[in-house]
Amino acid sequence: MTSQSLTSDQSVPSAPSTSSGGGIRGFFIRSENARGYALLAPTLILLFLAMVIPVVMLVARSFWTQSGMVQTADFSFVNYEMFFAKPIYWAVLKKSLYISGAVTIATLLLAYPAAYFVAFKVKKNKLIWLILITVPFWTSYLLRVFAWKLMLGYNGVVNSGLIGIGIIDEPLGFLLHNVNAVVLTLAHAWAAFAILPIYVSLEKIDKSLLEAAADLGEGPIRSFIRVTLPLSMPGVIAASLLVFIPTVGDYVTPKLVGGSGGIMIGNLVQNMFGRGNNWPMGSAIAVVMMITITLVVCVYLWLISQAKKRSS
């Protein structure tokens, strides 16, 4: 009988090592950033095609010249000189910033209580409440604007109701075709865009901080001012930007409910690209509007950062 023994110096053969290899495939395997950019490539390409190229074309066309119906691709500042030479353009731009600022403030005053109620007072089925808040905004934007036009009209719901209960004897003519109608309509139209970010910011607040403030003797008002409001400021800032930036260039609402008294800079741009058929001048007005909005937003964010530094 023979026996076989295994010697200690015998070893199990090791598996061949795999390498990531070279070339493009190896680069993507080794680089996490490259893999991330590869996943974002379709979105970045879409953004480039849909946003960057149109803006570049708009800026380029703003330096063109137009004589009659003929546009010439000659580099010139004549459109910008005309913008600042005519006070009407700058006056309408300042008026648009004023209207958008008023809309932003009105929207925040409407949106914050609604977001606060859902975040702190509703204990269950919060999703249903959020859906109910956004249900009116599932309809067309134009339908909502027309609804306000019907309500604020000379023979609209508001005037008819006031006459019916005996408060007024004849319809009020100042409800429509002015700045107030534009502010009211835009505040309602953009309310949902302000409620949601404020709600998310309020929902993230640790409720134990409010309990600690109450234990230290803070009342509900002081607790809100010193705890809730500062912690919800990111949502308030986001909501204000979401409302202010697009409303500056709105031209549908001012045209339908603002009349000649509620005209905004977007109406001038629309007229230049439409009936005016002066695309270079319309492009110049749009570029000045975008630069102005950017500067206003930068100053707004800078003031907020300075306020935070002073409070800390």
Describe the structure.
By secondary structure, this protein is mostly helical. The protein has a single domain (86-311), classed as MetI-like fold (Orthogonal Bundle). It is 71% helix and 2% strand. The protein contains 15 helices and 2 strands. It has helices at residues 23-30, 32-61, 78-85, 87-121, 126-134, 141-152, 157-164, 179-189, 191-203, 207-215, 220-231, 233-248, 252-258, 265-273, 279-311; strands spanning 65-67, 70-72. It has a two-stranded antiparallel sheet. A hairpin with a 2-residue loop joins strand 1 and strand 2 (70-72). Helix 1 packs across helix 2 (32-61), helix 4 (87-121) packs across helix 8 (179-189) and helix 8 crosses helix 13 (252-258). It is globular and about 75 Å long. The chain starts with 22 loop residues before the first helix and ends with a helix. The relative contact order is 0.11. Residues 1-21 have low confidence and may be disordered.
Count of strand segments: 2
Residues in helix, %: over 70%
General form: globular
Number of helices: 15
The structural class is mainly alpha
CATH architecture: Orthogonal Bundle
* CATH superfamily heading: MetI-like
The helix/strand order is HHEEHHHHHHHHHHHHH
Over all CA atoms, what is the radius of gyration?
30 Å
Q: Taking strands numbered 1, 2, ... along the chain, how are they ordered across the largest sheet?
A: 1-2
Task: Classify the fold: give the CATH topology.
Answer: MetI-like fold
